[in-house]
Amino acid sequence: MATPVVGAAQNSDDERAGAFPLTPAQYGIWLAQQLVPDVPFVIAQYVEFRGELDLDLLKWASTTAGREFGTAFLRLVDVDGRPCQVVDRDLDVPTEVIDLRDEHDPEKVAEEWLRRDAEAPIDLMADRLCRIVVLRTGDAGYLVYVKAHHIALDGFGAMIIVRRGAELYSRALASRSSGRDEIPTPDKPPADLRTLYEKDRQYRASKRFVADREYWSERVRDLPEADTTEVPPAVRTLTAETDLSAAADACLAGSPAMRDASSAAVVLAAAACFFSRRSGRYDVLVNIPVSARTTAELRRSAGMLVNVVPLRIRVDPNEPVEDLVRRMQVELVGALRHQACGLDDIRRATSERVSRFSVPLVNVMLFDQQPVLGDIVGTPHVLSRGPVGDRLITVHRRSAPAGTVIEFRANPNRYEENEIQAQCICFTEILEQFVAADPRTPVGSIHPPSAGAAAPRYRRNTVLDHWRRILAGAPTPPP
C-alpha cells in the first residue's frame, strides 16, 4: 500500500540543482530493487503502546524528528538517466492516523493492515520512501508503525529516529506539565544526508578504503563453494522463535567462556558451531550487519549506512570453547575496524560470485529497544527487516518479560517450516550449552545430538579438504 508523493514538482530545474548521487550502497539497493520490483526492500516495524497518548503531540514529535534527520523528506529523481536523491523540505509528510475502534475486531484488522502494507512494493520514483502511521485499536491502544525503504534508511537509523521522536514527545510533555513550552533541540545535531554522501565519497577516495579492501580480500581468500543455489529473496518468511532459558540468559552476561570477549562474540561462536554442524565443515562463513558508523557524528545520524560483512572462522571439534570464543572476538574486532567496506565492495574487490556469500545473516542486538512516550513504555514488533536470501537469525533482548529471544526468519524458496522450527530449537540448545560450558570443554562436546549427526560429514569433508590443502601447499587442518 504505497503512499504517493504529494505536492512535489517532477524533475524541475531547482530539483535537479539540489539533487546529489546515490552512494554505492544505495545504488546497489536500487539495482536489486529493479531486478525484483515486487519484493520491497524495506524495514517495517511497529511499537505497541497501552495508555493515553496525545496524538497531536505525537504527530508533531514524529514530523520534527523526521525533519531533523532529513530522511522523511528524501525523494529520488531522474537526472540524465540516473537515479539521484534530493531532500525536499516542501514534501508533505504527515503522520497518518487510522482509527479502527469501530471495527468488530480492531486488533485483527490492524494486524492484517500492517502485514499488507509491510509487503506492499514501493515505486522508488513516485512513492514516499518513509512513512509513519498510528493505528488506534482502542481508547488506550495505539500501534505506531514505521516503514522505510532501505535506500533511504537502515535499521540503525530507524532506531535513532524513533528514539529521537520519543525523546521529543516526552520532553515536550514534561515541559507542558511544568508550565514551560520549550522545543528541545539536540545537543549535537546529526549529519544531514548530503553530508553523509560526501563523507562516503571521501572515504572511497582514501587510503583507508584501500586498506579495508585489502583486509577483506585476505579474509575471504579461497572461500569454499556454497552449499546452496541462488533463489529469489523473500519478504514473507518462515518464522520460528524461542526464548533463551533464564539460566542461560544470566550466563550470557558473564559466561565462563567469555573472559575478555563480548556477549556478541559468544553468540557468534555458538552460531559458528551450529553452522559447522549443519554443513559438516570446519570452514564457516557467516554474514553480520554492522552500522558502518565509525565516528560519533555518524553514530547519531540516520540515512542508509549499514553494511553487511562476512565473518570467517574455523571450528575445530577438539578446540576448547574459550579458544573459539577468543578467536571469534578477534575476528569481530577486525570486522568492526573495517566495517565501512561492505559486502558489495568485497565482492567487487575479489571478483567472487554472489553465491559464495549466500550464507546466513546473524544479527546480535543485546540492548534495550523499548521506546518510552512520557510514562508509557512501548513494546516493539518487527514485521520486516528486509528481504531474506537464506536465513536471518536475530538474537535480541526483550524487556517485558525480560529475557533473550532467538528469532529465525528463513526464505521459503529454500526451506520448509518444520525444518526451520527444528533449526531454531537446535541453535538455542547449542547456545545455552555454550554459555554454560566450562571454558576448557572441547567444542565437539557441546550439544552431542547435533555433533553426532554431523560427525560422518566431518570425516568425509575432512578427507576432501585434506587433499585440497596438500595440493595447494596449505597447512593440514585439525583432525
- Radius of gyration, rounded? 24 Å
Number of helices: 14
Q: Could you give the count of β-strands? A: 16
Strand-residue proportion: 15-25%
Q: Kindly report the oligomeric state of this protein.
A: single chain
The secondary structure category is alpha+beta
Order of the strands making up the biggest sheet: 5-6-7-2-14
Report the average pLDDT across residues: 86
Tell me the series of helices and strands, N- to C-terminal. Answer: HEHEHEEEHEEHHHEHHEHEHHEEEEEEHH
| Percent of residues in helices | 40-55%
Distance between the termini: 55 Å
Shape label = globular
Describe the structure.
This protein is α+β, with helices and mostly antiparallel strands and 479 residues long. It contains 14 helices and 16 strands. The chain has helices at 13-18, 24-35, 55-69, 106-119, 155-177, 193-204, 207-219, 246-252, 263-279, 296-299, 321-337, 343-350, 417-436, 448-472; strands at 20-21, 42-50, 74-79, 82-87, 96-99, 130-138, 141-149, 238-243, 283-290, 307-314, 361-365, 372-373, 376-377, 379-384, 391-399, 402-410. The protein has a five-stranded mixed β-sheet, with helices on one face. The protein has a four-stranded mixed β-sheet with strand order 8-16-15-11, covered by helices on one side. Strands 1-4-3 form a three-stranded antiparallel β-sheet. A hairpin with a 2-residue loop joins strand 15 and strand 16. Helix 8 (246-252) packs across helix 13, helix 9 crosses helix 11 and helix 9 (263-279) packs across helix 13. The longest helix is centred in the last third of the chain and has 25 residues, at 448-472. The radius of gyration is 24 Å and the shape is globular.
